User: What shape does this take?
Amino acid sequence: MQILTQPDKESVSAEAGEYLNSLLTEHKTKPVLLMLSSGSALSLLDYVGQTTLGENLTVSMLDERFSVDESVNNFSQLQKTEFYTQALEADVSFFGTLPRHDDTMESLKTRWETDLKTWTEENPKGLIIATLGLGKDGHTAGIFPEADEKKFKAMFESENWVAAHDVGEKNQYPKRITATLTFLKKIDFALAYVVGQEKKEKLDAVILKQGKINELPALGCQEIKDVKIFTDTLK
Assistant: This one.
């Protein structure tokens, strides 16, 4: 794990975005699955050049909010970016996570997991690149803290690559479908984008490997083969 610090949010975005661009450029001739976190982490896509995009690239979300509301659904937010427009023009493939009219959380979860497993089977030498975030409660992707250790393990550390669950009052968007910790272990390169002093305590704990994973799910990033944390919080 490598920690890269900058003095402000804009500088963090630039450094992380340029690193993402360099990864996609370096591996342009290989099959790449790019898994994206939502929210402010989408700003990293502003630094991805159109020349890095092509038919070898497949893009999906790392976490989804189960909603057809375009202002809520993460994939809908991705579709509003210039990156998405350029990617379509470059024949990039997408695993969409906007619910269909007859979808349940379970049906979307099953379809999404099938897409991910099929991609890995068809591309045994392919690479998985992901952008990660860190919530001030210690969550990452849609993996939220859970006091019941057995429940957490069954949901996020089983053989499943994707989990569907309702986080209740833990988040304003409770219905979540997310990549699990089992899937996170398959990621080859991860960029963790962590800005804001309110996240410093949890980030420090992740770096020092302190706590239980069910109480601090972001500890799961320690299992990723190559992870770089881009932050402004270590001052």
Q: What stands out?
A: The radius of gyration is 17 Å. The chain has seven helices and ten strands. The first strand starts at residue 2 and ends at 5. The first helix runs from residue 9 to 26.
